[in-house]
Amino acid sequence: MLKRVGFYRELRHGDSKGETIHNQLDDDLGDNKELVIKYLSGGNILAASGVVGDFFNPTIKVGGLRILTDGVWVWPSDLSYYLQNYSTKLPQDFLLHVESNNWEIPLLSEEEIIALIPYS
Question: Taking the model in full, what pTM does it have?
Answer without folding.
Answer: 0.93
